[in-house]
Structure formats: structure tokens, C-alpha cells
Amino acid sequence: MPHRPQPSSYTPATAILALGDAFYDPVAPADFPRTILRFRNQRWAEAVGLGDLDAQAWLAHFGRFAPLPDNLPQPLALRYHGHQFRVYNPDIGDGRGFLFAQLRDAPGRLLDLGTKGSGQTPYSRFGDGRLTLKGGVREVLATEMLEALGVETSKTLSLIETGEALDRNDEPSPTRAAVLVRLQHSHIRIGTFQRLAHFGLEDEMRTLVDYCLREYYGEESGEDGSARLLAHVVGKTAALAASYIAAGFVHGVLNSDNIAITAESFDYGPWRWTPFWDGFFTAAYFDHAGLYSFGRQPEAIHWDVVQLARALTLVADADALTPSIEQFPALFQAALTASLFARLGIAAKGEESDARLLVAIETALAQKTVEIDRFFFDWRGGRRRGPSPADEAYRDELFVAVADLLRGYSPVPGATDHPYWSDAAPCSMHINEVEAIWSRIDEADDWSALEAKVAAVRRMGEALATS
Ligand code: AMP
Ligand code: MG
């Protein structure tokens, strides 16, 4: 179950400093001409004790990056490498973001406040270090929708328009600019480990393994530390991949620098939701080979985790790492059942029967006669509810087979209690809707469509959270 926000007091924790200077570079934020608040995530601000900040203090901390009390004195650009579309790139790192602060929530989890679009760093290469406002709005929408659908994701804490004009070749330009603050358990990536392996930094690799085990998995260091860490990451990334599939989400750029060691989904660029169960559906216009298409995401994430294992061989025996890697497919299958059943609001019965239902659902949806969101909405609790525009499609034998199997399943308690389940249509996040929300902002500076959508998404999240 993904973490839900619960009120907490402000608890600064600069754990990252224990890693030492070799892991980051102190940097300065850009000096923006303006700071105009566009999105404030009050639910999650309260979960890290920042809910009481007044409007002025919010802009000072998340637009000007005035340090938070007893927190990092200066932002840190984190160092990392990574495979981008399977090609190793040693020239990346935090090029338009930095770690701004760390804190703990009520359950004691270490959380990072990271930025996107906060200015240039030693890793900007030819980039301007900036984020477009449209990119920021898209990240708000993606994170809210994923959170509601039960995907463990970074949260968008703040979006502030900065008054700059940017040139981009994938947006009509000049285009408006923004700076975003995200809240996430960890910004340490598979690429962080790859960089250490690339330079043969054994001591630093041991330090990083111990840090991740301690801070993210609550375990002590030891001889078998790398193997234990890898086992955790395999389990969590398999669950992440499964939750993407159940959500119908296509991240778009599953490079190894975009996979966090805590396996939270993050770094949203060209993402899309696929309307239909279409394995070839691709989000990024530059992903010509469809490497990160909807159906290939589990394989892509598995490949990234193999790169983590390869990096860990700097300090660990390969034989100790292989068994975890080999478990990924089975863990993914189990997690996919769990994710799909959670979305349907039904209780699992047993491996064999559950696998049969899973195949039946995938086969029926693959005909592309019923949209993913519509299917899960109509069959919530395992029974057809109310008339649906898809009723004709449900008469098809493949859907009849699904219905027959579903009859043997029980709904989880409260599965359909929420009034959302009596709406005429499910809440979706298809590209036409995203573009329409952006058009209102772009053409009329009208933010009401974004606000209404976030409210609708959170309401769906409440409806789904009953199971
Ligand atoms: P991404 O594809 O967003 O994961 O980014 C890959 C790399 O490019 C990272 O090192 C980013 O920091 C960097 N990058 C992306 N956009 C910019 C930009 N506008 N300015 C500077 N660096 C950027
Ligand atoms: Mg990235």
C-alpha cells in the first residue's frame, strides 16, 4: 500500500551529509524575475510539518530557496551517471535540480525535497537549468493521478511560475517557466551506484550501500549488505512496474538515472496514459524504437536493476546477486495480480485461479474495444454496475469469460461504497484532457480546470483507497 499523508511536525534531517563531499556539489539557485504560486500541495506539506508556512514564507523557501531551519545550508546537486536508452552517459547529474532539504515524516521516514528547474549546475551541459510551466503542470497532473491510482510516486509539493521565457523545440516558444519542488523518499538512483562503479570507488560504494540499507530499508550494514539491498530493490521495482501496468501509465523515459533506489516513480517528462491496453503505446516522441512502450516497461525496469547489480559487483560477489535478479519476473507477476485486484476491489483467491483471471482480463482488454479506465470502473467489486457505453463490447465472448471468472470472486469490504462509483464516467488522464487543461492556462491564464482536475483525481483516490 502506498504511503498516505499523516500530519507531522517539522523534523529536519540532513542525513545526506553523512555520505560526504564525493556525492554532491553545493550550488546556488537561479535568481528568478518573479515568483507566482501556481500549486501548493497542502496535504503533503502538512505531512512534513510545512503546512503552516504563510504565502510569503512558501515563496521564499520554494521559489527563492532560502534554507529551511536547521536544514541544508546550501542546495546540493547530486552526482550520478546512467544508461539513457541503453547507452551509458557519464556526463549527467542534477542538471536542472538539486537537493534542497531533508526531513522526516510522522512514521520516521527520511524524505527529500528536490527541485526541477531551479537553475544551472555543473551538470547542466548545454541546458538552461529551467523547467517549462507546461512541464510543471504536467508533473502535477501525473503525480496526483498516480498517487490516486495507488502508485508509489514522488509528490509535487509546489509549483511556482518564475516570469522567465524559455525556448524549447517540443513546445511553442517562447514558453513560460516554473520551478517545481518534489517530495520523495529518495533521490538516490541506480545511476548513483553506476557512477561509483564507473570510477571504481569501492569505499564510496560501501558507504552508499550502508546508507541506503539504513535509511530506506531499516537494516544494519554487513558482509551481505549489497545482496540484501538488491533484493529489496528487485521487490520494490517489480511492484512499481506492476503498478504502472495496472494504472495504464507510460512513464516514457525509464533510463537508469530515473529509477530511484526506493523505487518510487519520479521524473516526469513525456509521460502519457494509454487509453487502451496496447503494449506498443509509446509516450515519448523521441522513443522511435518503442523501448519504453506500455508493455515493455517491466522489461525496461528489470534491465535497469540488472545495471544496479552490475555496479554492485564492485564490492560484492556476482553469485550473491544473481538470485535476486532472477526473481524479478515472478515478483512482477504476483505484484501485477495484487495491483489489478486492488483496482478492481476484489480479494485474491489463489495463485492458479488469480492467474487465469489476469490472463482473461488482459486478453479481453487487448482487443481495444473498451478503455482501461472504463473497464475497471464498470467492474469495480467484480460485478457489472449500472448501464455503460461499453455494454455492447461486454457481450463479446472474451468479456463474457472475464465475467464468468469474476463471479467466483468477492469484493473487498467497502469496494463500491464511495459515491464516485455512481458517476457516469471514470476519471481519466488522457492526453486530450491534459492538453485542454494546459490550453486554459496558456490562452487565458485560467487555472480553474487544473484545480478542478486535481480535486476530481483526489476524489477518485478516496474511492479507491477503501480497499
Ligand atoms: P531527464 O531526461 O529529465 O532525466 O534528464 C537527463 C539529464 O539531462 C539530467 O542530467 C538532467 O539534469 C539534464 N537536463 C534535462 N533538461 C535540462 C535543462 N533544461 N537544463 C539542464 N540540464 C537538463
Ligand atoms: Mg532524470
Automatic annotation (TrEMBL):
UniProt entry tagged with the keyword ATP-binding: yes
Active site, per annotation: D257 (proton acceptor)
Native organism taxonomy: Bacteria, Pseudomonadati, Pseudomonadota, Alphaproteobacteria, Sphingomonadales
Q: Where on this chain does Mg(2+) bind?
A: N258, D267
Instruction: Look up the record and name the cofactor or cofactors this protein needs.
Output: Mg(2+); Mn(2+)
* Role: Nucleotidyltransferase involved in the post-translational modification of proteins. It can catalyze the addition of adenosine monophosphate (AMP) or uridine monophosphate (UMP) to a protein, resulting in modifications known as AMPylation and UMPylation.
Keywords (A to Z) from UniProt: ATP-binding, Magnesium, Manganese, Metal-binding, Nucleotide-binding, Nucleotidyltransferase, Transferase
Q: List the PANTHER family.
A: PROTEIN ADENYLYLTRANSFERASE SELO, MITOCHONDRIAL
MF GO annotations = AMPylase activity; ATP binding; magnesium ion binding; manganese ion binding
E.C. numbers: 2.7.7.-, 2.7.7.108
Q: What is this protein called?
A: Protein nucleotidyltransferase YdiU
Question: Which family does the entry's similarity section mention?
Answer: Belongs to the SELO family.
Residues annotated for ATP binding in this entry: G93, G95, R96, K116, D128, G129, R182, R189, D267
Q: Which gene encodes it?
A: ydiU
Q: What class of enzyme is it?
A: transferase
User: What is this enzyme's catalytic activity, as reactions?
Assistant: L-histidyl-[protein] + UTP = N(tele)-(5'-uridylyl)-L-histidyl-[protein] + diphosphate; L-tyrosyl-[protein] + ATP = O-(5'-adenylyl)-L-tyrosyl-[protein] + diphosphate; L-seryl-[protein] + UTP = O-(5'-uridylyl)-L-seryl-[protein] + diphosphate; L-threonyl-[protein] + ATP = 3-O-(5'-adenylyl)-L-threonyl-[protein] + diphosphate
Q: Which Pfam families match?
A: SelO
The record, for InterPro entries, names: SelO
Organism (species): Sphingomonas parva
